Every structure is written in C-alpha cells, then in structure tokens.
C-alpha cells in the first residue's frame, strides 16, 4: 500500500499530526498555540534568536550533504567494519517481523510522526511554561545533536544496511516508492553513524520526561521506542548506529537542559541589573 506519493503528501500528513499532537500535549486549541508562537517570535528577542539558530542548524545539515557530495577524494567506508561486528542482526530482525501493516505503521512514524513530534514539542513548551525553559532546552539539544553528528557524517561514513547487505530490503519503498528522489536529499545514504532519528527521538523523550507533562512524556517515550525499532525494521541503520544515537540523545538532552537553565539565570541577572540601573536613574532625576 502506497502511503506517500511525494513530499507534499508528507507535509500534509505532518501538518495534521502536529495539530493533533498540540491538542493532545497541551489540552488546548492548537491554533491558540500557533498564535502564541508567532507572538513570542515578534516580542521576545531571545525566543526569536533561538528559533533562528535552530533553523540555521537544520539548514546546515542540508549544506553538509552538498559538501559531502563534492568530497570525491575521500573514499573511506566503515560499513563492512560495522557488519563484521554485529553480523546479521538487522536482517534477522526484519525477516522475523516483516508484515505489510507493520511496514505502514513504522514508516508513518519514521517519516511523519518523528518530525511532527519535534514541531509539537516546541509549541507545547512555548504554551505551558512562562520562562520557556523547556523551549530553550529543546533548541539547544537539537542543535547539539546536529553539531556532534555532522563531523561523523563527513569523516566516518557508514552506508545504510539495505545498501550494503543484499539480505535486507529497504521496506520504506513499499509505502513511499519515490523516497530516493523525494526524501533522500534530506538524508545522505552514508550518514548512518550516529543515528539522528534515534538521538533526536531520545532527546525529545528525555526532555518530555523532564518537562513535567506526563501525557507528553508517555507519548514521546513510546514514539522513541517505535523509531528505534523502525530504523532496524525498515533496513536503514545498524545496531551500532542506534547505540551511538542513544548516547548522543542522552548527552544532548542533558546539555540542553543545563544550557537552558544557565541562559535563564544570566538573562534574569541581566534583567535585574537593568531594573536597578533604571531605578537609580529615576531616583537621581528626582
């Protein structure tokens, strides 16, 4: 069964899922959250700068793919080394669980729910916390994920399992036949270690657990588990990719929370200092 015809279809599904997740995670009108998001962008310089930085790092990932395509003289490949360590783990898992309905479900989670979860997290944390601590933590954590992963993609290339092991099928093509022409530009064939799908889904789950929003924490944790299963089942990632992504996700989420708290503390001190200066100026004027 074909689920995705092109990226337009993916965008439509993602938009609908984001709306649903905003309602589920915040228990309010999703469009109210959208309005609050736009208001914060317009009125808070810190909020805007963090969002711009997040978009810039996502754009950097696309630039990385362009640069990598021009690195024709660098021909190192660690794929065979990975397979020599873990053998037929992915092949055995795929052959054990392969099912048409399961392929449909995990592909939808991998392509749509994964990115919708990131977008919804930003909206939910913007709505539920006046200090925006979890919003800033999410921005920092996602940026750390990419900043750590990109050097590996340049200098430690590992091909996807299906492209190396003939016993593994790329099941995504069963539901998204044009994946290689429509979606591949967002994900390099040899950008496997560490697995960003693993690291970002784990990052979002850890942040959700730390946010105090139990509904959102349960959802993100379950989705992270499905994503980890999906990267093997669909024939994309090696077990070592997942382990690297897991460690990166734990590190990025922890660092993101720390940086967010530090940033809020510094902005609070700066604000108090400006208030004190204003008070002294008013007293002098009297």
UniProtKB/TrEMBL annotation:
It holds the Pfam family PAP2_3. Residues 93-252 form the Inositolphosphotransferase Aur1/Ipt1 domain. Gene3D superfamilies: Phosphatidic acid phosphatase type 2/haloperoxidase (1.20.144.10). SUPFAM superfamilies: Acid phosphatase/Vanadium-dependent haloperoxidase (SSF48317). InterPro entries: Aur1/Ipt1, PAP2/HPO_sf. Keywords: Membrane, Transmembrane, Transmembrane helix. It comes from the Bacteria. This is Phosphatase PAP2 family protein. It comes from Paenibacillus mendelii.
